[in-house]
Give the backbone structure.
Amino acid sequence: MCSRHIGFILLLTLLFSAVKISSKFEFTNFECKSLDKSFDDFEYCHLKSFNRSYKYLSLKVKLFKTPIRKVKVRAILFKRYNGYKPFMFNITVDACRFLKNTKSNPAALYFFEFLKPYSNMNHTCPFDHDLIVEKLEVGFVNHQATKVLPFPEGDYQLETHWIAYDIDRAVVKVYGTLS
C-alpha cells in the first residue's frame, strides 16, 4: 500500500472518530434545603449511583400548608470558572401561570422538560399533595444538555428557589459536569 492510501485511511479514521465524539453529563452533587420547616420539609433528597453509567436523583418534599395556590420558581444556572459564576439563565417564573400555558416561556419550558417525565408537578395549581421527583436519570439529563440544547463543557450548578406566597420556602441545587 502506498503512503498516500495510508494517509487517506488515517484521515478518514480521524474524521470518523471526531464525528463520534460527544459530550457526556454526570451528576456530581445534589442538595435540598427547606427554608421554612413549618411550611415544607424534605422527606428525602438523594443522588444514587448504581454503576458508572446509571445514576439518578430523587426528592420528596412534604407540604404542610396545602392547598398551595401561588408558586414562583427562580432558576439560576452557574458555570464554574474561579468559583461558580452566573451563566446564561437567571429567571423567575410564576409556576401556576406557566403550567396553564407551558409554551409561554421557552427557557422555563426547557428546564420543565427535565422534570416532566419524572415528577408529579405537571399540573396547574393548586398543589395539594407532596411534590416528588423520582429517579431523574443522568442519561435523560445528558440527552437534554447535549442534544436538545447543547452546552459547552464544564462544571455547572443549577440553583432553584421555590417561592410560595412571595416567601422563599426551599432551595434545591443540582451539580454536574459536562465533559
Remarks:
- The chain has one domain: 23-178.
- The chain has a mean pLDDT of 83.
- The CA atoms of residues 83 and 155 lie 10 Å apart.
